[in-house]
Amino acid sequence: ETVDRTADRSSSGTNTHRADAPALIELQGVHKAFGDLHVLKDCDLTVEAGEVAVLIGPSGSGKSTLLRCINQLEEPTAGRVRIAGVTQGYEEEPLPDGRWQKLSPKRIARQRARIGMVFQRFDLFPHMTALQNVMEAPVHVLGRSKEQAREEALALLQRVGLGDRAEHYPSELSGGQQQRVAIARALAMEPELMLFDEPTSALDPELVAEVLTVLKELAEGGMTMVVVTHEMGFAREVADKVVFMDDGQILEQGTPDQVIDHPTSERLQGFLASVL
Ligand code: ADP
Ligand code: MG
Question: According to the UniProt record, where is the region Disordered (predicted)?
Answer without folding.
Answer: 1-20
